[in-house]
Design goal:
The protein has one domain: YaeB-like fold (2-Layer Sandwich), CATH 3.30.2310. It is about 25% helix and about 40% strand. It is globular and about 35 Å long. The relative contact order is 0.26.
Length: about 80
């Protein structure tokens, strides 16, 4: 199950990010990186065609069998 922190819920609402896009970034990322400041977190990246192919960054961590979404945003510098 995918769970969302309060911060992630606010970011989704303010930035108008579809949950389907987040699920795609988690289940089929274009690439992943470890979070340099938090070794327990992963950054998953996915180009979103419906959003002009901008790259969505989803920061998440495992919690048992669940995935906790910490934050989500479109990353202007991703892939550069």
């Amino acid at each position: 199950m995918i769970l969302f922190t309060k911060h992630a819920q606010e970011a989704i609402s303010v930035r108008e990010i579809a949950v389907d896009w987040i699920e795609a970034a988690i289940s089929a990322p274009d690439w992943i990186d470890p979070d340099p400041r938090h070794p327990d977190r992963t950054r998953s990246y996915k180009a979103i065609g419906e959003y002009g192919a901008r790259v969505l960054r989803v920061v998440h961590r495992p919690e048992g069998d669940d995935i906790v979404i910490i934050t989500v945003h479109f990353d202007r510098g991703a892939g550069e």
